[in-house]
């Protein structure tokens, strides 16, 4: 078999559009998922037993089941229960956001527990309302401690986003599969698609290591 990667230049625009859709989906789900994860992390450290129980069930379910099954259930089953149609984009955003929220909640929970109780005691002594304590004292420190793991989660989500191609969303993987089917050149096409994911994900993983080292140094001071 003779390999011919030059054929991909004919589909350069389609691959770029697919990559743009992948990046856009990833960014949306990162923002929504991290916000949800912080709220769930707060719920899991709450003194309210019911709140802790509900948040724990949510986290364990979405961490303990395959993301692809979650995506399929939201795309195929949720519309039947709600009586509304969900686009593949909406289904992808919901599924990946819920998954991101579950995995980041554990990151936030660990970072919240690392904040010394004396700081919260000082807030109470000063008479600060709960919302002021969370926004001005807890949140900045929790985010700083959670940044390295959060960035790793973001890189993982970027790679997991390829699953949305299974519900027909025109991301990079979906475009690559279509080009592969139309050209009968799966080796060249899927190799290039894999390299695109790698070229984006690998520098991010290196950056995570550098940022983690700097944060640990800063916290040690």
UniProtKB/TrEMBL annotation:
Localization terms from the record: Cell inner membrane; Cell membrane
Signal listed as a keyword: no
Function (record text): Part of the binding-protein-dependent transport system for glutamine; probably responsible for the translocation of the substrate across the membrane.
Swiss-Prot/TrEMBL keywords: Amino-acid transport, Cell membrane, Membrane, Transmembrane, Transmembrane helix, Transport
Membrane-spanning parts: 20-40, 61-82, 189-208
Annotated GO MF terms: transmembrane transporter activity
CDD domains: TM_PBP2
Membrane disposition: Multi-pass membrane protein
GO biological process, one term: amino acid transport
SUPFAM superfamilies attached to this UniProt entry: MetI-like (SSF161098)
This protein's record includes keyword ATP-binding: no
ABC transmembrane type-1 domain location: 19-208
A cellular-component GO term for this protein: ATP-binding cassette (ABC) transporter complex
Record's protein name: Amino acid ABC transporter membrane protein 2, PAAT family
Family listed: Belongs to the binding-protein-dependent transport system permease family. HisMQ subfamily.
Major subcellular location class: membrane
